[in-house]
Amino acid sequence: MGTHVLSMRIDGELLDRLRHHAAKRGMSVQDYVVRTLIRDDFDERFKAAVDETDRFYGLT
After folding, report:
1. 32: number of Cβ within 10 Å
2. What is this structure's pTM?
3. Which of 13, 15, 31, 34 could be joined to 27 by an S-S link, Cβ 3.0–4.6 Å?
4. Contact 28, 21 (CB under 8 A)
5. How many angstroms separate the CA atoms of 56 and 14, rounded?
């Protein structure tokens, strides 16, 4: 299967929030983000967020 690198650019406020959530769980930010992405309900939550964003910008 191999490995791949995912790089993302986020603003400082979001990074601070991620650090806070990760620290509460004793995790690194990277581990927290990966764990969030592999949650069973991530696909549904992501789709709902995309749909809401589309509605906000009038794309649907």
Report:
1. 19
2. 0.60
3. 31
4. no
5. 20
Smallest Cα–Cα separation from 33: which of 48, 46, 19?
Answer: 19
Amino acid at 26: G
Indicate the burial class of 27 (C-beta count within 10 angstroms; 0-12, 13-18, 19 or more): middle
User: C-alpha angle with apex 5: 18 to 7, nearest 5 degrees?
Assistant: 45
Tokens standing for 59? 């794309």
Render pLDDT for 7-50 as a digit per residue (tens, 0 to 9). 889 999 999 999 999 999 999 999 999 888 888 788 888 899 99
Structure-token pair, residue 1: 């299967």
